[in-house]
Amino acid sequence: MGQTATFRIWRGNGHEGTFTDYATEVTEGMVVLDAVHQIQAHQAHDLAVRWNCKAGKCGSCSAEVNGHPRLMCMTRLNQLNLAKPVTIEPMKAFPPIKDLVTDVSFNFRAKKSIKPFKPRPPDAPDGTWRMAQADVERVQEFRKCIECFLCQDVCHVLRDHRLFDEFVGPRHMIYAAALEMHPLDVEQRARDLKDAYGVGFCNITKCCTKVCPEGIGITDNAIIPLKERVIDQLYDPVVKLLRMFR
Amino acid sequence: MSESAVPLVVARRRFGETTRRDLWWVQPLLVFAGLSTFVVYATWAAFQGDHYTYGPYISPFYSPEIFGTSPHNWFGPKPAALPPWLPFTPALLILPIPALFRFTCYYYRGAYYKAFWGDPPSCTVGEHRTTYWGENSFPLILQNIHRYMLFISMAVLAILVVDAWEALWFADPATGRVQFGVGVGTIVLAANVTLLSGYLFGCHSMRHVAGGCVDQISRAPLGARAYRCVSCLNRRHMWWAWTSLFAVGFADLYVRLCSMGVWTDVRIW
Ligand code: SF4
Ligand code: SF4
Ligand code: FES
Questions:
Q1: DSSP-assigned letter for residue A221
Q2: pLDDT reported for residue A239
Q3: Confidence band (pLDDT; 50, 70, 90) for B12?
Q4: Which domain holds residue A219?
Q5: Whole-angstrom Cα distance, residue A199 to residue A196?
Q6: Which of A12, B53, B107, B163 satisfies CB 3.0 to 4.6 Å to B70 for a cystine?
Q7: For residue B105, which phi and psi values (nearest 5 degrees)?
């Protein structure tokens, strides 16, 4: 490439901010995070950006590139139209701290509110369990989550409606699903899923699934199955009746 | 969540506000156009009460014909007890079932919340509403009847399969003898039930019933296989939803136009 591109970066503190344009030379193979680092090194030493692995595995460098929630380290410049300025903003669902860095601590609190893993009594006298691969396969998908919180950022229930007290968000729905569908887990979470975690607030618009860098089927494989389980436990009169005879 | 909320209130965005550069409005617009066209056509067709059979074919909008005047009817003509001011066609008795099934379908819900409600108009695009209840309370909590709609729709699907079978048997106009045959209409009805089956058997509620509801599926080998099959169809649920919608509308149109003499049904066999 060897061309100059403009990056329109959000500069601000917790209260206010503005977009500032930075022109910088870009070369082949660069990702958005490289460009941000280059700008930080040569033009804006005080530019705040969170990153760690540069390999799409730590989940730190989440931001919004041209309006799309993305990992900056996994967004190659050749995927973008460099003829126009590339906008880079912090995640909008979370309180801004400085520039591209936001306060994502809501997510840690939300995670703590989910009832933890509670295994059934051990299967063998030596205190161990036996599981079939077929049974754990489903929850293994959810364990790929890198906690980038892009799904939380894009979810309109949090982003636009700000229902942080009512809804734990898609990331924690897959966390709850990983526990709930675990073959050894015996905890009951249906009532909490409905009342405390707010599964009913999700209107299955699948924005979370579309942005997940790990390709986790958040809506189809976690949220909808959880909705169905809540129906079993709390709404469906026929299932309730059947359970009485079991 | 029970713990404290995020302290800072970020300014609400205006309707349609976004920094996205792509044509984000195209998809919701296509969904809006596609679903509206279908709803308008299906409503019109359901109120016609005419031209819904042709030879061995019956339009899927009108099957089962519980009461009606065509040779396909089950219990004779419209019951005299029905008040004359009540609009009646055989389709009006049956169409609410697939309509409610599709209305409560997890795929369509996500799609029409975006296209018709603008909630959200598209991902990361500003909304026009300030309040939001989601599916957490009345009325949208009623979407949870989806599994019942699935079971009832399965029965209707079985009847459509029989219709497709009967579309293979043509009566000779001269002798009245029934003989095996395949017309373009047979293929249209068969394609319709195939696509509808892919749609119904890939339903999210079906996936739950087929094995999604248990944590140790390896203990039920039959359930494991059913769950795998349903999951496989479910991965392309949107594709099945749209193709089956088109197929069912086209099947009605085909029978209708043949019956009206606009199209001629070609016998292939
Ligand atoms: S599918 Fe549900 S959880 Fe995911 S973004 Fe949409 S509303 Fe949020
Ligand atoms: S589910 Fe996907 S998008 Fe959400 S936090 Fe995990 S990796 Fe990120
Ligand atoms: S820097 Fe680790 S995910 Fe981007």
A1: I
A2: 85
A3: low
A4: 105-245
A5: 9
A6: B53
A7: -65, 135
Q: Does B123 touch chain A (CB under 8 A)?
A: yes
| Domain total of chain A | 2
Over residues B152-184, the pLDDT tens digits come to 999 999 999 999 999 999 998 888 899 999 999
Would you call A84 and B212 a contact, using CB atoms and an 8 Å cutoff?
no
Please identify, by atom number, the ligand 2 atom nearest to the C-alpha of residue A142: 1
The encoded tokens of residue B178 equal: 């029934």
**Does A112 lie in the same domain as A87?**
no
Structure tokens at B144: 């949870």
Determine the Cα–Cα distance for residues A5 and A87; give it in Å rounded to an integer.
11
Rounded to two decimals, the pTM is 0.94
Q: What is the ipTM, given to two decimal places?
A: 0.93
**If you take atom 4 of ligand 1, which residue's CA is the nearest one?**
A208
Nearest by Cα to A177 from A243, A240, A228: A228
CA dist., res. A189 & res. A178, Å (int): 12
Task: Clarify whether residues A25 and A96 are in a common domain.
Answer: yes
pLDDT tens string B183-222? 999 999 999 999 999 999 999 999 999 999 999 999 888 8
Q: Are residues A181 and A122 in the same domain?
A: yes
